[in-house]
Design a protein that fits this description.
By secondary structure, the protein is an alpha/beta fold. The longest helix is centred in the C-terminal third of the chain and has 14 residues. Helices cover 47% and strands 15% of the residues. Helix 4 runs parallel beside helix 6, helix 6 runs parallel beside helix 7 and helix 10 runs parallel beside helix 12.
């Protein structure tokens, strides 16, 4: 399923998108993905673990380490994703080192063949994304860029031209992780980034109240990661609590 189709359908229904991030290989990933979708996740972002996750905070770094310790690697990742039976778009989030090592063309084809329709690479600058973007365009896979509170001017214009699927708006400076409040910069970023491409806000969102606030500020969706990963790390009623949290978050986006 294409990401653009999902956002079009949600817009028609006046709903915001719930985009759920978890790291593949940390726990029972197929069961976790099914629980998130059953709870209401519209798009699932599956992390492909890398040993130097510079954009991620301690919670997701620990999740990545658990996945690496469990033996997750790109071959196992694509094999696992290929067998997921869910009716929502799947997005891979990873770092460019793994894409470079596998080869951008092979990586994109693996995405296509396993059912992944979007790629997020937080350490890939837009001006160096040409090769990967070319293979994505050729194979109908979206290349999704991050927009930070400090992204302005020609760099922002470049991202708006290149980004497809949705734009990942970073709510605040720093790394991923749950925060008690969402920075005022979220509203400022939403006001500044004017585009027809859907805008989803991430970094720090962990409650229905926060998600509703971001949606009412004009976002087309919210991205939630660390709050789900905390549940996985606890090992306590993981499937039930993930489904319940996804349901709470999705309810706030209607």
């Amino acid at each position: 399923m294409r990401i653009s189709d999902t956002f079009s359908e949600l817009k028609k229904n006046k709903e915001g998108a719930l985009i759920a991030y978890v790291c593949a290989g940390d726990g029972d990933t197929p069961g976790i993905v099914r629980a998130l979708v059953k709870g209401g996740a519209d798009i699932v972002e599956l992390g492909l673990p890398f040993s130097d996750p510079v954009a991620d905070g301690p919670t997701i770094q620990a999740s990545i380490q658990r996945a690496l310790d469990a033996g997750m690697n790109p071959d196992k990742y694509f094999a696992m994703v290929r067998n997921l039976d869910v009716d929502v778009p799947l997005v891979v989030m990873t770092y460019y080192n793994l894409i470079f090592k596998r080869g951008p063309e092979r990586f994109v084809k693996d995405c296509l063949e396993s059912g992944i329709t979007g790629i997020i690479v937080p350490d890939l600058p837009p001006e160096e994304s040409g090769e990967l973007a070319g293979y994505c365009e050729k194979n109908g896979v979206d290349l999704i860029f991050l927009v930070a509170p400090t992204t302005k001017g020609s760099r922002l214009e470049d991202i708006l031209k290149r980004g497809t699927g949705f734009l990942y708006l970073v709510s605040r400076l720093g790394v991923t992780g749950v925060r008690a409040d969402i920075a005022m910069s979220t509203k400022e970023v939403l006001d500044r980034v004017r585009t027809d491409t859907p805008r989803a806000v991430g970094f720090g969102i962990s409650s229905g109240e926060q998600a509703a606030g971001v949606f009412k500020s004009g976002a087309d969706g919210v991205i939630v990661g660390s709050a789900f990963v905390d549940i996985i790390a606890s090992g306590q009623d993981v499937i039930g609590r993930l489904e319940a949290m996804a349901s709470e978050l999705k309810s706030s986006l209607r």
